[in-house]
Amino acid sequence: MTKHQSIGAQFEEYVAIIRRLRKDCPWDRQQTHESLRPHLIEEAYETVETIDFKNWHELKVELGDLLLHIILHTVMAEEEKSFALEDVLASAVDKMIRRHPHVFSDTVPLTADEVSHRWESLKMQEGRTSALDGVPNSLPGLLRAFRLQDKASKVGFDWNDRKDVIKKIHEEIGELEASCIQGDQNEMEREFGDLLFSLVNYARFLKINPEIALRHTMEKFSRRFRMIEEELRRQGKTPNDSSLAEMDTLWEEIKKKEKQ
Predict the structure, then answer these.
(1) SS3 letters for 201-232?
(2) 3-state secondary structure 43-81
(3) Burial of 210 (0-12, 13-18, 19+ CB in 10 A)
(4) How far is CA 77 from CA 18, 72, 85, 245, in A?
(5) What is the sign of the dihedral through the CA atoms of 222, 224, 229 and 230?
(6) Helix (H, G, I), strand (E, B), or coil: what is residue 183?
(7) Which residues of 60-91 are buried (b: 16+ CB within 10 A; e: fewer)?
(8) For 140, left (φ over 0), alpha (ψ -120 to 50), or beta?
(9) pLDDT by position in tens, the chain (length 260)
(10) Which of 80, 74, 89, 72 lies closest to 31 in space, CA to CA?
(11) Assigned CATH class of 141-208
(12) What ranges do the domains of the chain cover?
């Protein structure tokens, strides 16, 4: 594959490579849609991570890894006579044109919000029975909650003001505290879930993706805690033989340095 090839020729060569791997590589040959599922999810997360860190060189690499999975699943479907690559491309082209009438048919310009609302309406016309259809159960909890709330809001099921969401959060905290006093573990779990769901709603009103926000916080926590461990090692100690006060002091010092 060379840079002098057209995109079409490069794509055809890549597909031919994947088809050969399915025939000649023992590992690729034994894969199924199910066996590749965790790898596909992992590649998607790795791709997202390159975006988080604005590592555009690695993004190029990770997009190639995602493309591998798309083509590999398609080639396997061809072998099973389920569908072919041409069907995937035709379906994708048809969907993009159908869901963008403001680009390919209408002459009236739309705002981004109007496009989003029309998108959901077009999905319902395609045979979906609920506005919540299309949100995979396999999504991480925070992200799935965010997407469910977002879809419901598209059809008018939403708070009018973020202040109302804040009130709901305080209400859920009170209910969680009450369940803690009762000592009912199942009820505490339900109330904690309600609180998380309300916090996700607030994030949505602030136009913050809660999954990304939490991931950034976890990265920050991990980085700072590792720095605490490193400093303790320099002192000939470990977290196990250090007091909470010592570690908390180091945490605050690291936090101060980062802010500076």
Answers:
(1) HHHHHCCCCHHHHHHHHHHHHHHHHHHHHHHH
(2) HHHHHHHHHHCCCHHHHHHHHHHHHHHHHHHHHHHHHCC
(3) buried
(4) 13, 9, 9, 59
(5) positive
(6) coil
(7) eebeeeeebbebbbbbbbbeeeeeebeebeee
(8) beta
(9) 556 679 999 999 999 999 999 999 999 999 999 999 989 988 998 998 899 889 999 999 999 999 999 999 999 999 999 999 999 999 999 989 988 888 888 767 788 777 777 766 777 777 777 888 888 888 889 989 999 999 898 888 899 999 999 999 999 999 999 999 999 999 999 999 999 999 999 999 999 989 889 988 999 999 999 999 999 999 999 999 999 999 999 999 999 999 88
(10) 72
(11) mainly alpha
(12) 7-97, 101-129, 141-208, 212-259
146 neighbors 203 (Cβ within 8 angstroms):
yes
Residue with tokens 């803690």: 180
- Tell me, what amino acid is at 224? R
The HSE-up count of residue 29 (CA atoms within 13 Å, CB side) is 6
Long-range contacts of 213-217 (CB under 8 A, 24+ apart): 214/142, 215/52, 216/52
The architecture of the domain spanning 7-97 is: Orthogonal Bundle (1.10)
Q: Alpha-carbon distance 226 to 216, whole Å?
A: 15
| CATH fold match for the domains 7-97 and 141-208 | yes
